[in-house]
Amino acid sequence: MDRVERCKEKFAELFGGKPVENEGNDPEFMRILQRFIFGEVCYTGSLGNRMRELITISVLAVNQTMPQLKSHIGACLHLKIAPAEIRETIYACAPYIGFPKTLNAIAAMDEVFAENGISLPLENGETVSEENRLEAGEALQKPLYGTEIKERYTWLPGDFAEAVPRWLTELGFGDFGTRRGMSGKDRELLSVVVPAALGGAEVQVRSHAAGALKAGNTGEEIVCALAHAMPYMGIPRFFNALNCAKEVLSE
């Protein structure tokens, strides 16, 4: 198949419809977009439709591009991806993009869920309590990242030397990383993509690339995830992410 036929095949798989031919006000642009994403990028590398769509909605949540986010959440449901896994993908963006932007993405997600007859709220995904969230977070963090953050920020004044690394452990790994609905391997792969999509977070991209490898992802899967994110986040951020992760991925 050439890329036009592959685009038609992939579009049907994801959306249950047909790509643009001459419809709309800008069919030329849409043909370029759809044939590149769905006819080329989606067929390059080892990742399947499920992981690619979770990557896509992560980047769209970072970008706050709600019409496209809704469309791809619909694609996730069309692929029979569990609503809980979609939710975890969106929730996991919060430590990187902040709570307000994540709430925007959640609102878009919930709207699509409601349109598809999915009862809300979904089943509770929490596994930690106020008493053990630090301990549970450390159990996830240390095998992948050691105590690097705690050691790096000992210079902070007063209470912040203790509070800042603790916040990362409790929030990023305790509150979010321990939740049900997504494997640790997949969480770590998405944790490479989200800071890459943010831009200006190259230190975190490198760190999370190393963490993703330790969590069981291959170097090819990490490159594939970044390449799949490229049409949604742009070529400069894609190259920045590859460049800063090169040393880790080449080892």
Q: What does this protein look like?
A:
The protein is mostly helical. The protein is built from 14 helices and no strands. Helix 8 packs across helix 10, helix 11 runs antiparallel to helix 12 and helix 11 packs across helix 13. The longest helix has 18 residues. The protein is globular.
The succession of helices and strands, N to C, reads HHHHHHHHHHHHHH
Radius of gyration: 19 Å
Distance between the termini: 35 Å
The pLDDT mean sits at 97
- Largest sheet report: none
Count of distinct strands = 0
Q: Report the portion of residues in β strands.
A: under 5%
Structural class by SSE content? mainly alpha
Question: Residue ranges: pLDDT <50 for 5 or more in a row?
Answer: none
What is the oligomeric state here? single chain
Number of distinct helices: 14
Helix content: over 70%
Shape: globular
Strand and helix map with partners:
Blueprint: H1 3-15, H2 27-39, H3 49-63, H4 66-78, H5 83-91, H6 94-97, H7 99-115, H8 133-145, H9 148-152, H10 160-177, H11 184-198, H12 202-214, H13 219-233, H14 235-250
